[in-house]
Structures are given as C-alpha cells and as structure tokens.
Amino acid sequence: MPQVPEQIASAGTLESPALPNSAGSLFQLFRDGQPHTRAWLASMTGLARSTVSSRIEELLASSLIAPAGESSSTGGRPPSTFILNPGARCTVAVDLGGTHARLAVTDLSGHILAEEDHALAISQGPAAVLDAVADTAERLLAQAEQSPSGVLGVGIGLPGPVEFTTGRPTSPPIMPGWDGFDVPGYVRERLPVPVLVDNDVNTMALGEHTMVHPEVDHMMFVKIATGIGSGIISDGHLQHGAQGAAGDLGHIAVPGGDDAPCTCGNSGCLEAVASGPAIAARLRTSGLDVPDHAALLELVRDGEPEAVRAVRQAGRDVGSVLAGCVNLLNPSVIVIGGVVATAGEHLLAGIRETVYSRSLPLATQHLRIVGTQTSGRAGVLGAAAMVTHHMLAAPQVNALLS
C-alpha cells in the first residue's frame, strides 16, 4: 500500500479508493459545475436509476448539490436537474510572501467571499505569522457570514521549499525559524479543520491553471518578487518532485552572475541577479533612490531609462534559465507573475527575447509567454483549489457524508 502523505492523511484522505457506486464517486461528475439529470448520470456511470436516485438523495442531504430546475423535454414531464452547490462549504485560502499576506474566504467554486491583503514579514517567525493568519481568517469568516464549522479546509502557500508530504518548510532561505516547523499542526490549534500547505508558487500555478488556463495540460507559472520560483503543471497536474522541490528556479546559476551572493549560500543564482531586491540594489549602485519594490515599479512606470534597462535585463536573465526549462519540459504556456511582473512589458520583452532565441524551435513553436491574469490573487485562488481538489475527492466526500 503506498504511503499516505502526513498532511493529506491528517486532512482526511483515505488510503483505499472510493467504491465506484458510492455517493462520493457520483459527486465527481458534478464538479464540472454543470447541471445534470438522473438519466445522464446513469448513462455516464452505468449505475441503475434507483442507485443514482439514492446517491443523489445523500448528496442533497449534505447540501453538496442542489436542484437546478428542470431541463428541456421532448415530451412528457421535464426531467429534474442537479448541480454543485458552491455555498455548501467554504475554504480559507492563505498566500504568504516575503513581506505580505493575502487571505480569502472562498466558496467551493473559488469565488471570493471576503479577502484582505496587508503587509506581514515572514521573517517574524512561524508563531507570529500564523497567529496573525488565524486572527485574519476568523475576521474574514465573520465578514463573509460563514460558520467555522462550514470550513472545508485551510490552504496555505509559503515563500520557500515545502515538503509536501508533511506541509513543513525545509531550509527556507528567507524564512528564519521556519525550518521543519509543523505548520498544519499549529494552524489546526486555532482552526480545527484540515490544513494543506505548499510552496507559494505551486499554489499560484494551481490558481492560474484552474481559473484561467484549465484547458492547458503543460504550463509553468514563474513568480518574480522578493524571490523567484516556478510551479509546473504537467499532463494537467501540479508536479512536486520527490521531496517537493520541483520548480525551484531561483537557485539555478545564471551565466555571468557568479559574483552575486544568494540567500541560499551560493552565488550567481537567478534570485540573486533578477529578483526585486537584486534589481533595486543594482539601481542604488547607479545612484538612484530605490528603497523597495514600490519605488522600483514607480521608476519603471515613469520611464526612467536606467530602471527600464535594469528590468529588461532581469527579464533576459530569467529567460536564460527558462530557455533550458522550455527545452526540458516543453510547456505550451509560461505565465509570469509576482510583484516585479507588474512592471509590465519591459520584463516580458526581456524574457521572450531570450527564451525564443535560445530554445529549440520545436519547443517554442506554439509557446505563449504571458502575464498573470488573476490580479495578484493566483496564490489564494490556488490555495482554495488545493483544498477543494483534495477534500472533494470521492473518499473524502464519502467520509463527510458518513
């Protein structure tokens, strides 16, 4: 029997698969958000109409589905239809960056019911940050008029490597005091529901894929902010790798970046060359007043030549690393997000320039490199999707019904 990940096991995942005629298995057909009739469900599953009716009654009693009215009929009484009920439960979604926190309460379809975005330094340590997260979550639940008992789960994205099987950070460079910390266990003390934790860029990739590019099977999401990282979607699924370190783009060496010291202890890493702080530091050596991200972005938007050149060069540096990824993974879409990406087309132009010139023609034949379309919400949307993907799977739905 394969090992069940600790954080998933604590979230209620069952080792054995759901029975094919169970209510949880039938519920999977409703997750497309479309209304379905008993006859259609019976034809798709091969179950008897009586069995389908019984399972529908179970799902109706749990409020996971709801009547959707009557469909058109070619004669006789129109058949009743049923649909996923997004308001049956809610999720608490948390996106933590190096210096910020965005939290949201969402329904089961990912619609945001309440949200808050504020400054929060991850360097304060796990207890202080997670206490602030719990306080904000409780406030948002009240604002959204959602009962804590209706929370399906909490999803958290952290700005560092996370061992996905346990939800614990692993030697995160910009997160002092977090190494090995039991994030799911600590959060459950305040919010006693399933808690799932992943790297923040993985949640962003999941959010952008779920909400914007669901039809894309091969995609990368690249976050450029205080750090640099990527999330990889392959064959429609988020990839974690053996220990959850897949996509750690920021610590690949950049040609010509050998002298730049990195927070990981090495030098010449992409993060040390092209992240927001790295660009700002380079501009300060040129005599510009660039204390933070906001000042950098303001200079770029004002068209300050040195700032524009620095951002475009950062794009080229990112592109030099991404070119290898394109040859290796052959994605059809690369989405660029993070605060530095809000600098606009200058960054994207630098990335495209290098990727298209250094990658194989076959790999770039249909490749699109685009900016994020989730307005800074990719992380919370992905954290919510992480919860629903796990907690609305057939075994968990069966456990919920029982």
Largest sheet: 5 strands, mixed
Number of helices: 15
Radius of gyration: 23 Å
User: Beta-sheet strand percentage?
Assistant: 15-25%
Number of strand segments: 15
Q: Looking at this structure, what is the CATH superfamily of the largest domain?
A: ATPase, nucleotide binding domain
Helix and strand succession?
HHEHHEEEEEHEEEHEHEEEHHHHEHHEHH
Organism: Nesterenkonia flava
Family: Belongs to the ROK (NagC/XylR) family.
Pfam family, one: ROK
Protein name: ROK family protein
Topology:
Blueprint: H1 6-10, H2 23-27, E1 36-37, H3 38-45, H4 49-62, E2 65-70, E3 80-84, E4 90-96, E5 100-107, E6 112-119, H5 126-143, E7 151-158, E8 162-163, E9 168-169, H6 183-190, E10 195-199, H7 200-211, E11 219-224, E12 228-234, E13 237-239, H8 270-274, H9 276-285, H10 293-301, H11 305-329, E14 333-337, H12 345-358, H13 361-364, E15 368-371, H14 378-391, H15 394-401
Parallel strand pairs: 4-7, 7-10, 11-14, 14-15
Antiparallel strand pairs: 1-3, 2-3, 4-5, 5-6, 8-9, 11-12, 12-13
Task: Walk me through this protein's architecture.
This is ROK family protein. Belongs to the ROK (NagC/XylR) family. InterPro entries: ATPase_NBD (IPR043129), ROK (IPR000600), ROK_cs (IPR049874), WH-like_DNA-bd_sf (IPR036388), WH_DNA-bd_sf (IPR036390). The protein has 15 helices and 15 strands. The protein has 402 residues and is an alpha/beta fold. It folds into 3 domains: 18-86, Winged helix-like DNA-binding domain superfamily/Winged helix DNA-binding domain (Arc Repressor Mutant, subunit A, Orthogonal Bundle), CATH 1.10.10.10; 88-205 and 379-391, Nucleotidyltransferase, domain 5; 213-372, ATPase, nucleotide binding domain (Nucleotidyltransferase, domain 5). A 5-stranded mixed sheet has the order 6-5-4-7-10, with helices on both faces. It has a 5-stranded mixed sheet with strand order 13-12-11-14-15, sandwiched between helices. A 3-stranded antiparallel sheet has the order 1-3-2. A hairpin with a 3-residue loop joins strand 4 and strand 5 (100-107). Helix 5 (126-143) crosses helix 6 and helix 7 (200-211) crosses helix 14 (378-391). The protein is globular, with a radius of gyration of 23 Å. Mean pLDDT is 91; it is low at 1-5.
